[in-house]
Fold each of these.
Amino acid sequence: MYEFEFVKPTTLKDAVQILSDDDEAVVLAGGQTLVPTLRQRLAMPSQLVSLSALKELQDLSADAGMVTIGAGVTHARVAAEAAAFPALAALAGGIGDHAVRNRGTIGGSVANNDPSACYPAAVLACGATVVTDQRSIAADAFFDGMFTTVLDEGEIVTGLQFPIPQQAGYAKFKQPASHFALAGVFVAKFAEGVRVAVTGVSEDGVFRWADAEAALNTDFSVDAVMDLALPMDDVMSDIHADAEYRAHLAGVMLKRAVTAALS
Amino acid sequence: MTTSEEFGYALNFTLNGSPVTTEVAGNTLLIDLLRDKLGLTGTHLGCDTSQCGACLVHIDGASSKACAVMAGDLDGADIVTIEGMAASDGKLSSLQQAFQDHHGLQCGFCTPGMIMSAASLLKDVPQPSEAQIRAHLDGNFCRCTGYQNIVKAILAASGQEVEHV
Ligand SMILES: Cc1cc2nc3c(=O)[nH]c(=O)nc-3n(C[C@H](O)[C@H](O)[C@H](O)COP(=O)(O)OP(=O)(O)OC[C@H]3O[C@@H](n4cnc5c(N)ncnc54)[C@H](O)[C@@H]3O)c2cc1C
Ligand code: FES
Ligand code: FES
């Protein structure tokens, strides 16, 4: 690893100040993505600004059809505590392994926007709101291509607000070593309509699957999407799965997600 | 955590039940602190990607990968490593003994992580099913045993019948 300083501010205000004073400072949350990245010398920050002492990022609550989750809440806590939104709790419980879930955070996952990560699918399918130290950002405007979001330099995600769907389900086909999604689909049905988000599949990161939404808006059933095929533009291809296989998996995960939503 | 000019950062935490005061650099990982500075080499480094689980320890009771935690985050933490599992006279814990009795290890490289992982499961689920054990070991890779005897050892350690397994 390169050398860097380590700071652990105790208030959000201090964290924001440190980041605004130093362009090369980087936020550390659970470290489950950032630390391996540092170990591989893929990043060279001047200092890590740990968020672990910020109590204001640790809340998880549900009321009035909304689940609000602080950015510093771990995957393990969402799995155990988001009972008001079972599909989200199940998604969190399926991330990585138990050690990753004990430290990795929802804020870190959403800010990182790995094209194969699970949370971005839930955020986009629910039309959740990403709250930062500066503003609130609608999911449809937040993700901006793989590993990219509209967050400014030094902007800290403080929490997520998920409207609770009437019915919802997430299904992923995991890459067995990393556990990330080779293809993952989140289906959320609201009074206003159905939203479907796909992760693990596109070179541009998480996206909404318009044809699946249209079909499910007409008829919220597995039959309605039985023969639906994902258009093959920009589908990722790597040693784990080529584009054709990934696109096929997306269709299978869609059916499983609808099945989960209906069960 | 306080900054000290000479060494970097002063840290205080509990390690296997005893208080530790030490200094680390800003970029010190927990695994490097344990192995290189404190001489506890039971925690193994098996990969560069935080996927293998050989480095598993317990931090405030939660299983965590020592290769993916910065030491600077651990002021005040309660850390248990594989060295903290046996009794002070060297008598193995029942879980460790079960690994020995049921040949749950061959080269032994993955074993510290396996024991720490299994211990965290048994704390929450005293009598896990075979499926629960296999799911829990999802993040612990073994290149020797084929997992069968590891599963068997954990079933036995939790007081379950293993003849049929
Ligand atoms: C073995 C393994 C398996 C995994 N499996 C899965 C999986 O199945 N599905 C999945 O989705 N993920 C998986 N992950 C990734 C895991 O979920 C990470 O926890 C997550 O991607 C990042 O969260 P973190 O809290 O660890 O963030 P960190 O690693 O600390 O940070 C990640 C990035 O986000 C930035 N950041 C962190 N918090 C904030 C914030 N509040 N505001 C602004 N920027 C911030 C950091 O600067 C950094 O760039 C896996 C990881 C490992 C090691
Ligand atoms: S050394 Fe492989 S997970 Fe930590
Ligand atoms: S016993 Fe050799 S890796 Fe598991």
Note: Strands of chain B lie at 2-4, 8-15, 18-24, 56-59, 62-65, 78-80.
Amino acid sequence: MKINQLTISEAQKGLIEKKFSSLELVKSCLEEIKRKNPEINAFITICEEEALSQAQEIEMRISKHKDIKSLFNEYPLLGIPIAVKDNFSTQGIKTTAGSKVLANYIPVYDATVVKKLKEAGAIIIGKTNMDAWAHGSSGENSDFGPTRNPFNKEYVPGGSSSGSAAAVASHMALAATGTDTGGSIRLPASFCGLVGLKPTYGRVSRYGIVAMASSLDAIGHLTKNVADAAKILKITAGQDGFDATMPPANVPDYEKDLKKEIKGLKLGVPKEYFGFGLNKKIREMINKIIVQLDKLGVKVTTVSLPHSQYALATYYIIQPSEVSSNLARYDGIRYGFNRQNFGDEAKRRIMLGTYTLSSGYYEAYYLKAMQVRTLIKKDFEEVFKKVDVLVTPVSPNLPFKIGEKVTNPLEMYLSDIFTVTANLAGIPALALPVGMINNLPVGMQILGPQFGEELLFKVGSKIEEISQNHLTN
Amino acid sequence: MIGEKSSLASKNYKLTEEEVKHVARLSNLSLNSQEIKKFQKQLSEVLNYIDFLKKVKTKKVEPTSQVTGLENVFRPDKPGLSLSPEEVLKNAPKKNQNLFMIKAIFKK
């Protein structure tokens, strides 16, 4: 096994025990990038020089420090190469959001998450490709070319955090950041066999991240396992004073409960998510996991979220409306290029949102959608009085081929049918891999009440154990 | 059930070319005639899909705009660190001293 294939925890152990150096770790990721990126196209910018010099600096710090363990306690991501989605502002490093409008934009400040990751000792290895402005479910809406799925290069990696997923799945980085407005972390995690976390709305600061739909945007990450997801959230969560939508909720030790027993836990299976739109083999695979959880003493019940069928339509009113408002600021005067540089998908969403917000239509569309959003949120509140967590598929289908859905936007939008509800209700969601079908990864999703991330990690690491046993048996 | 075909397209709603042009103008986007035709079809399809929300009864339902229930978030009005004028103007395509340069809006 090469060192770039390790999880964060494994790599950290290796660094502490001096089995390899941070410089070697960075170099092995950079070599993988050079070998695979020309075909996969996971990165828009590779930060080779910066990463190497940062690794050298860390080497110095480690060599001078007497108590290495305490150093790694203080800097929980010391020397770990992380890829950053290209809609996170990075000081002095080009940040395009996947769009030609920002092809020359170099931020003068770091997003809060980037700042926090750097302060924890992480090394930014590069900026990842994405659907322009995070508009898309496949990565194909990038103005810098599509990203390919490392499991089969004919297929999409899922979007919009397409490059982040492909980079981690092909071991070009140990973890990556992502944004999730309607499934943009969870769908690519599912399509690339990774763990993807969409935290509660307001759990992680949006400051310095190119806004898509401000009432839905959640900032998360993609990792190789659940423990790494918990480790990163511990660093990125919490108020920063720059995002007024963050409640003053405490940041618990997310790593603490990972291995706790889940006997007696109440698990709901929402029937609306297992309807006939769902691929039969995916349903069987998830059902097997549920049976295993039941054997471990989890109380499984079928529940109903009656307004789920309206979620995607609600999302496709609220989201473009907010997109049209957020993208109105791009005028090419203060930075970036003019509006002629918007790609087709951005134009579609700007126009759709402008239409649904325009005089005479606002009440029929936007206000109506905000009311249905209340009903969707109430469904979850009711159901979480009866059960602790919910499990659902991430995607109704397996990854699709590059080009398969590009000419039919509505068909593409339907990819997010199981993921948008979490954004509308503001609840946390964890996607994790449960197996392979036709040599393509399959994910499932755990949903919990607002600020219930600890619970998701606890259940997630148990499911991880179950599905790994399945793979080895 | 989510994803049922029956939940798609409840009626055949179609945007006119004029409406597409009008929305493009409101959006500050200029489209060529090919784009107008393409977006006319694609936007109409999406409008047909979202139209089925009309079936939901929402009388007396409050709208949700902030999911975690925060209201009126304040902070002390103290000046803190901010960017220098040089930093603010760093990415400007046209600048003059400490100002952004734009095309004149009013004629002399």
Note: The longest helix of chain B spans residues 33-50.
Amino acid sequence: MSRKYAFFPGCVLNAAAHEARMATEAVAERIGLDLVEIPGWSCCGASHVQDLDHDAALAANARNLALAERMGLDVLTACSTCALMLRTARKELLEGRKDEINQALATADMQVQGTARVTHILWLLADSVTTWAPLVKKPLSALSVASFYGCHTVRPPQVMTYESHLDPHSMETIITACGARPVTIPERLKCCGFHAVFPAEATADRLTANAADTAAKAGADCLLTPCPLCQMQLDMYQPDAKAAVGKGGDTPVLHLTQLVGLALGLEPERLGLARHIVSPDGLLAKI
Amino acid sequence: MRTITFDIDRFDGTRSWSQSYSFAYDPTLTVLGCLIQIKEQQDPSLNFTASCRCAICGSCAVRVNGNAVLACDTRLDTVLTQWNSDALRISPLGNFRVVSDLVVDWSDKVERLRTANTGLKARKDFTAESGCRQSPEDFARIQKQWDCILCGACASDCNKLADNREDFLEPFAFTHANRYAQDSRSADPLLHVKGMVKNGLWKCLHCMECVTKCPKGIAPAADISALRALAYAAGNTEGKGPRHAAAFLTDLETTGRLNEVRLVPRTEGMIDAATGRLGFTWRMLKRGKLATREAVELFLVDNKPIEGIDGLRRIVRYRRTAK
């Protein structure tokens, strides 16, 4: 496999979820995926900017898409909220806002056409599974893995069109290709609470504790998510959620590319697994 | 003969059970058509609500395999294909009190909808002589919201309501508030915003279930965003929700990227962040999620501005300055 993408890391992959960037880049290198970071990319608005200024979020993402168009590449991101924001902007541009927003872009000598498509590393890995599965060096047959898709990976389906929002299978396809056993939990398509962790903290705590607790009780060695924001919520806040709710607390939460990286034989250090709040050491000892 | 099975959640006021009904596959049926056929041919005791049969009255929403649909507007073939199964579980809407079988109680929901101050209080410059005309452009801004048929699908699958209904409203309430707040004929848009602010406007989880499940293609999450913008512009800038959103916009315009270290104190205030997040911060430092030196630099100096920051600022502010 050799495909080249304009890589949109998003803010958290450069900060608290840096291990997701490490894992994404390591996996990409191993499977022959060429990721070229978009020079000068900006925050996608993180599903918050539109609450104060809708057109500011739209224009910022139009600029991000325009930068990718200059590279002549489609966009790849490893964050579901970034994917949703970029795809929503592209849809809005193509459905009638392009000329108007291009007036804003013209102030920086830029134009957007909407030609650069936006994909998620999840979808790319699921689509190319037959290509990279033969590269699996360390089948994770001892692991049971509960997928946690994350809202913005599949919803709204008008924008996130890759697969059924009701019954997606991309995560299970990848877990199986890694040699692990997929575990289904009721929270699989539920919200982690991340986007309201401050104004609705009690709710976010309960959602986090529920997912962690259910996964553990279902026999999963870890939760697995393709969204770094879900990972941050379920991992970083899991001790607080346990303190508040009284359950969960010991369930490791892996980024999708960390699991793939382990199966491909990449060292845990290269995948940033030591950076997790809930230690994945027990899981690593099993493989 | 292909046989379809509906496992229906039953409730008689005291007792709950699941009852299985099988019937011959018929590609012309809707989900509502199946329910009517079961009631007419198998079990007259099965209760559900329905009226118009053409997606106008909003009374027949149920859940299929846990997901809300408008039964009259959902073909049997669609759900069989979606779930790749000839057996489906049919349940009453979620986040509603169940009266009987698939019948849910709307009385409480209507009371909660009143917080939106539904009903137009027209501008004073309208008179009997001049009328209350509205341009097609202004009507277009609220046209979609007027499509709401109060079926309850958005409320059924809302992740926030499922956790706690005491500090949040049904998504349709925000849609109704926004359609009056954005109406060019409205005397006081804030009349419809204030009740939303008091009832969880900033607590939406952004789970997008409401947008996904609305059978009329309305986006209550977008209405929540629009109401937040109105509230913020009107001075509702305090509180964790508004401050959190403002932090993202500030960072976008200042350096182009999020400053995670400043985000918490900006959202919660310095004192609350320093006292309430000590354990959290310690864990982050201990596990290397945050590097001490990097954190101090981010807090004191900020991110380095992105390449092309001046252009980004002009782009982001263009619409605001043009208004």
Note: The mean pLDDT of chain A is 97.
